[in-house]
Amino acid sequence: MKKLINQVDNIVDEMVEGIVAACPTKLAKADGCNVIYSKTFNKNNVALISGGGSGHEPAHAGYVGNGMLTAAVAGPIFTSPTPDMIQAAINACDSQKGTLLIIKNYTGDVMNFQMAAEMAQAEGKQIDYVIVGDDVALLNSTNTTGMRGIAGTVLVHKVTGAKAQQGATLPEVKAVAEKAIKSLATYGLALDACTVPAIGHKGFALNDNEVEMGLGIHGEPGVKRVAMKSVDEFVNEMLDVIMQSLHLQANDHVSVLINGLGATPIMELYIANRQVQKILHDKNIHVVTTYVGNYMTAIDMPGFSISLLKLDSELETLIKEPSDTLAFRV
Predict the structure, then answer these.
(1) CB-side exposure of 66: number of CA atoms within 13 Å?
(2) What residues contact 118, with CB distance under 8 A and at least 6 apart?
(3) Which residue, among 232, 66, 241, has the nearest Cα to 136 in the 3D structure?
(4) With contact defined as beta carbons under 8 Å apart, do 16 and 48 qualify?
(5) How do residues 163-203 score in pLDDT, each as one tens digit?
(6) Which sequence positions are flagged as catalytic?
(7) Is the pLDDT score of 114 beyond 60?
(8) N or C end of the chain: smaller count of CB under 10 Å?
(9) Per-residue pLDDT averaged across 267-279, rounded?
(10) Is the pLDDT of residue 140 over 80?
(11) What's the 3-state SS for the chain?
(12) pTM higher than 0.85, yes or no?
């Protein structure tokens, strides 16, 4: 294993220190734990907190800032943060209007974030939460507890952060988050597994000509293994599932996110985007915004995902609002 690290046990600590050092006027680290929060947060706005296991950078710390998250909790690599860490994030950005937790649908994340919410509520804080499940590859799967939360979560951060920035109430901000989640779909594939530093080898094996379709961002099994094809053929298949799940029709408006999983050249992501845009154009579906890059990775996994957010007039306005974070500036 070749990794640009010091000690395996210090990876997340040192990463968090480096993130804060990259933007010291806008970001701070909570004392004693790996929580990154915005120093410029307006406490008259609803606070937004997300997070999970590390290894998905720039998620989630890269989205802390004006117009998106107020704080992010960085658990150990591919491991949910503890309720105490999440509660530290709530305390670090205690808002007069309350706090919304944005949780990806993984058992550990859901359990620990919900527990932290209950602890904060017991202290008299206004806390609510939403759970993102956008992985439509698992729409009809019986092997998971609902759809996993993957790259489309970033678009939930974007529109919900914009709503909070407008001074909306906690119920109003939650309503936007829930609407976005219901209007969101993602499908991904991997050409190979990632290497978790503490393990030192790849999490699964694929033959040279095999691709895993619909896998999770921690290397969980996908829905099937197929032979390697052209990227246009993969995009056609993935986008067909996404469009069916969202019931897209001519004249609908969408936001597009083409997400790399950590080791895919940006060149290849733009080639995938080329086909996505062509299909949507041919079907007279209007693309309002497009984002191409690494937004929610799986350490060093080669692969990508496609996310579409179906927009109504409110979501379209919010997706266009400015944001200023390390990894997402509009």
Answers:
(1) 11
(2) none
(3) 241
(4) no
(5) 999 999 999 999 999 999 999 999 999 999 999 999 998 98
(6) 56, 218
(7) yes
(8) N
(9) 98
(10) no
(11) CCCCCCCHHHHHHHHHHHHHHHCCCCEEECCCCCEEEECCCCCCCCEEEEEEEECCCCCCHHHECECCECEEEEEEECCCCCHHHHHHHHHHCCCCCCEEEEEECCHHHHHHHHHHHHHHHHCCCCEEEEEECCEHHHCCCCCCCCCCCCCCHHHHHHHHHHHHHCCCCHHHHHHHHHHHHHCEEEEEEECCCCECCCCCCECCCCCCCEEEECCCCCCCCCCEEEECCCHHHHHHHHHHHHHHHHCCCCCCEEEEEEEECECCCHHHHHHHHHHHHHHHHHCCCEEEEEEEECCCCCCCECEEEEEEEEECHHHHHHHCCCCECCCCEC
(12) yes
Nearest 5°: the CA angle 141, 186, 246 is 85
CA dist., res. 73 & res. 113, Å (int): 10
Instruction: Output the six-digit token pair for 268.
Output: 């290849």
Q: Using the predicted structure, report yes or no on whether residue 139 has a pLDDT greater than 90.
A: no
Q: Which amino acid is at 157?
A: H
Q: Which amino acid is at 137?
A: A
For the chain, percent of residues with pLDDT exceeding 90? 93
| Residue where the block lists tokens 């996993």 | 148
Instruction: Enter the tokens of residue 212.
Output: 């895993």
Residue closest to 238 by CA, chosen among 295, 291, 310, 186? 186
Q: How big is the chain, counted in residues?
A: 330
What is the average pLDDT across 241-256? 98
Q: Are 100 and 126 in contact (CB under 8 A)?
A: no
User: Token pair for residue 154?
Assistant: 């970033």
